Here is the input.
Amino acid sequence: MSKKKNLQVLTTGVALVIASIGTTALAQETRVKTTAVNEPAYRVLQNEAKKSSDLKPQLDAQEAVTKKTETEVKNNQSELALKEKSVKDAQEAVVKATQTVKDTEAKNKQILKNASKADANREQAIKSAQTNVNTKNDAVKLAKEKLAGANQHAETVESKLQSAQAELKSAQDKLANTGVDTVTIADLTQFKKDKAEGDSDFMTDSGATVIENSSTKISEADKKKTVELDNLTEEQQKEVSLYAAKVLTAIHKQFGLNEVTVTDSDLRIAREQAKKYVARGIAVNKAGHINGAYHGENISLANEKHSMSMYELKQTVFNAIMGQTFADAPSKWGHSRNNFVNNTVGIATANVDGRLHVISTLDLAGGNIIKDDIDIATLEKAVATAESNLEQAKTASENAKNALTTASTDYASALSLKTEAEKVLADAMATPLQAQVAENNLRLANIALENAKKREATASEAVANFSASLADKKATLLKAQDALKSAKTAKTIASQALDIASAKLEDQETKLSNLNKQVTKLLEEKDALVKEAKELAETLQAYLDAPVALANAQDAQAKAEAKLETAKAELKTAQSTLENLLSAYRTEHAKLVDLQTEYEALVDLAEKAQENVVAKLPDGTVIAVTKVAPTAEALPEVNVDELQKALATGKEVTLDVQGNVVVKEKRETYSAPAVKSVENEKMSYSRVEKAKTLPNTGENSSVAMLVLGAILGTFGLVTVRRKN
Here is the structure.
């Protein structure tokens, strides 16, 4: 039953109570007035037994009273008729009220039954909905915990992934910054054949090819290492010596020779030699080598320089070793022989007399071998392990992301189900209680029936009072007063019942208002949950869209890499073109130098022809002999003992035309050709350039050759040989 209908029923019941109370009060009021009129007549009748003289007046008076009484009776009869009508009306009202009560009672019993059933269903629905809400709350809580766990796990896995990436980069950096230098020596097959034949020119040609086609890759980290060339640290000396051993070993391998190592004695001897040259203060190309505890010594000269990077120093050593080994014709291949016959090496540097000396002391054996501290295998294994860990971390990251996506979806679903369950609960709680309303309606109907019955009784009693004798009117009045009192009491009871019903109605309205407030609150919470779920869905969608963004970025990266490869190809083509142009330039430049050399030789011969006789031998050798040459009979005698003593001084020894021994300071005859280090530029060699270089054979020079040269110089014999 609706609230409006309940109010209608309640209003009708109250109206019936008020009507019954009002009718009773009106009847009582009329009865009181009638009794007051009859009291004097009652007193006159009591005085009729007086004397006869008074009879007439009394009779007249009695007649008057009678008439008055008859009038009052008539009036009372009229009033009685009215009261009878009132009784009839009251009886009809009772009948109607009884029927209404019966109908209402039957209807309300059914309504009460239905209402009780509806309220039971409502209660069961609320319990079920509350149970479902509790279940869904537990599901939301569990899903939220799983989401938090998945998110935390994803963050942990992501942190591990970043750590794995950092670990891999660290391992790669360590491997890249360990100074892992590589040396690539070109094929030496042709050079070995030329060397076996002992043809210097052929060795020069094939050696130049070897130098052009050989290379070294030095760690980029060495560019950041500054080296003080006048004061190498032990670690720096060891590092550059190990590099020199690596270069020599690469050359030895193609000849089937032993590995070249570094010993502590090599390092010590190299340092001692450097100190000796500094103490002497004269460059090696001016004063020659200084004896030391070595089997062989090679020195490369460059412009004075006091500091450079370790990268530049290693490049200088590489160029020096390659020149000493494969372009040593000016020194009669003495430096090359030292590099081939010895098995250990030590490097030292010193600035002497305005020239940088790169000193290599070589030996067959001796001392403690120094190993390279860098464990490349371990570093490479560390990189491989880091790469494996990174792949595992990537897999774990993908799994964690998938789990996070699943947990997010489950949480959103749980929130949605919880919202639906709370809506069902709110709808169930919003349904008003019907049994209480039906009970109130039935109670009000019963009150109206009782009031109608009381009105009927009161009306019947009033009729009886009017039909009774006048003597009983007073007693009737008293009874009527009692009835009036009872009627007032009934009115009070009815009023109290009305107040109780009104209070219960107000309580029901308050409960309904509270339920409406609860519904509003639940709807607000539902809206908040829906908003939260929407935000979570948007976040989830953004997360799901992340792979698409990543794919787009990867596609852009692939396009950029393709452009890079195209640029690299174009650069390679340009470099190839440049190499071809440089090769053509070198060829034409070599021709120019050969022509220049031939021209200078002709000029030299022309100059010599002024004082000498120029002749050509059958083998093509051109000689110049002084026009006034001594005869065999007039050759001067040479004091051999004096000559040997002079040679022992280490200075330059010549003979004059009389055979006297002449001692001079040595000329530049003992240093290797200076090797200029130019980063990323290969050295170029030609016969003409080597012919212009002062000869240097290291310290292993022949005394016989010196004597022969002195004698030939004495007699002015000069030969110029050109290989056809």
Observations:
- Residues 182-373 form a domain with the Pathogenesis-related Protein p14a fold (CATH 3.40.33.10).
- The first helix runs from residue 3 to 45.
- The chain has a mean pLDDT of 75.
- The two ends are 133 Å apart (CA to CA).
